[in-house]
Each structure stands twice: as structure tokens, then as C-alpha cells.
Design brief:
- This protein is α+β, with helices and mostly antiparallel strands.
- The chain has one domain: Nucleotidyltransferase, domain 5.
- It contains three helices and four strands; from the N terminus they run H-E-E-E-H-E-H.
- Strands 3-2-1-4 form a four-stranded mixed sheet.
- The protein is globular, with a radius of gyration of 14 Å.
Length: about 120
């Protein structure tokens, strides 16, 4: 099997394994995290209505440092502020195919410190 195809297949399986357990609702939306090589993105998603409730990303933000962990902390703080402004205090954390370590953990901790209950 092609190594890239194998890697993407394993990533797809891990993501689906996490998503089979986690479900966001209107009362407790899903906080989904996406990490690329240069940017961090987080969304609050209502899976019942299939809509995005809040969104935060580092794309187009020039004043954030180049350190990816700092970017993740900024996104976690920003998404928490947006969630609290829309009266969402509790969320379900969706780490996708990533481990809860490093950047993903930094985003979650920043969201907790800003007032979200994960």
C-alpha cells in the first residue's frame, strides 16, 4: 500500500472513531479542532441542526506569533469568548485524529481558562 494512502486511511479511522462517540447538540455543542502546518482552526458545531455556531482561526491574523502552540492558545481563548458571548458554557471537545497533547491540549486549556467547561 502507498505510504501516504496508508497514513491518510489511519487518520480517517482515528477521526471516525472519535466522532462515533462525540455528538454536539444545541445545549452542548461540539468544539472541533483542526491543525494544519501553519494555522489552527476551531469551530462550535451543533450536530443536530448541522450548523456552525462559532468559528475562530489564525488565517489572516498577522499579529499572532509564529509559534503554533501560541496560536493554539490564542484560538482557544478566542473561541471561548465567542461561545460565552452566544451563551454556550459547556462544550464537548473533539480532537479529531490528533492526540490530546501539545497544541490540542494548549487550545483546550486556554478555552478552559477563558471560561468554557469541557
Amino acid at each position: 500500500m502507498d505510504s501516504l494512502k496508508h497514513k491518510l486511511d489511519n487518520q480517517f479511522r482515528r477521526k471516525n472513531r472519535v466522532r462515533s462517540i462525540i455528538h454536539g447538540s444545541q445545549e452542548k455543542p461540539r468544539l472541533s479542532v483542526h491543525l494544519s502546518h501553519y494555522h489552527v482552526t476551531a469551530q462550535l458545531i451543533d450536530d443536530d441542526q448541522k450548523i456552525t455556531l462559532a468559528y475562530s482561526t489564525t488565517v489572516g491574523k498577522k499579529n499572532i506569533s509564529n509559534n503554533m502552540t501560541e496560536k493554539a492558545k490564542w484560538v482557544g481563548n478566542d473561541i471561548a469568548k465567542k461561545a460565552l458571548a452566544k451563551k454556550y458554557k459547556k462544550v464537548v471537545f473533539d480532537r479529531g485524529s490528533k492526540l490530546y497533547h501539545g497544541r490540542v491540549a494548549a487550545l483546550a486549556e486556554a478555552a478552559r481558562e477563558a471560561g468554557l467547561e469541557i
